[in-house]
Protein: Phosphofructokinase
Amino acid sequence: MSAILTVTFNPALDMTGSVSALQPGDVNLVQNYTLHPAGKGVNVARVLTDLGATVAASGFLGADNQDPFAHLFTEHGIADHFLRVPGVSRTNVKLVEKAGRVTDLNFPGMAVEQADIEALTARLLSLAEHHEWIVLAGSLPPGVSTEQLTTWITTLRDAGKKVVVDTSQHALRAAVEATPWLVKPNEAELAQCLNAPISNEQAVLLARGEQLFNQGIANVVISRGVDGVLWRDKEGWLKAVAPAQSVVSTVGAGDSLVAGLVSGCQTGLSKEAALCRAVAISALAVTQVGVGVRNDEDVNQLIEKISVSPVELSVHAE
Structure:
C-alpha cells in the first residue's frame, strides 16, 4: 500500500480556549486552553496515522518555531518533508463557547519568497514519485498565488496522482479549475466557490455539487455538519448522517472526514463503507479537543448507527 502525502502550505499553532459565552468588545475570561501544531494538512496526517496509514507531510514551516511540529511528526511516525523557511508559523486562536459555537481568529501566516515556492515545487515533484495519494489542505500564505496552487494541482494530476483538495474562498475556486480527484467544501465554501446564493436545501446543494462533478472532478464531497455528508462520484450521490454527539469542539471535524475518506478509498473499501467510516470519525472528532482517533471500537460502534442512503438529483433544483 502506497504512502499518503499531505501538504500544508500555511500551518499554524492552534490555541483553542474555552469560554462560557463570548462577549465581543469586552474582556473574556478563558477557562482553559490547549496549544498544539495544526493546519488542515497536519491534522489530516495526524488522523491518518491513527488509521494505520503510512504518511508523509510537507509544505512551508517557519524555522523559528518548528519544534512543536517536529515533535508531533516524530511522536506519530509522520515522515517530515516540510521546507523550513525563515520566520515563525502563525498562531491561530479558536474560542469555543459552552453552547458549542466556535469563533476562529485565523491569521495570514508568514510570507514566502519565490525561491521558497520553487524549492517546494521541486520537493513535491520528488515526493510524488512515491505517493499516489496527495492531500492539499488549508489556506495559502502570503506570497503564494492561487495560480501557483492551480499549477501544483495540474502538475500532480497530470502525473497520475489522486489529488484531494480541502480549501476555501479564492483558493477553492482555483483548485476547482484544475479538476483534482476530490474536493470537500462545506455548504458556505461551495456557495462562495460558485458565487451562488447560500442555501442549505439539499436539492440546491446537490445541483451545486453537480456543477463541480460535471467540470471533471471525480469526487465531490459536501460536508453539512449535523446534516451529514453528501458524496458524488460516478455511482451517483450518497448521503450519510451520524447520530447527534455531545459537542466539545468542531475544530478538526472536517479534517477528520478527509482523512477517513482518503484512508477508506486507499484501502479499497466500498463507497458506502468508506463514507460511513469517515462520517463516524468526523462525528467523534467533535467530542474532543484536537484531532485523532482515540478508540477504534468507538468508531466501529458508531458506524452501525449511521444512516446512509442514495440520493436522487431533482431535475427542478436550481
Summary: The longest helix spans residues 114-128. The chain has a mean pLDDT of 92. The first strand starts at residue 3 and ends at 8. Residues 17 and 33 are 4 Å apart (CA to CA).
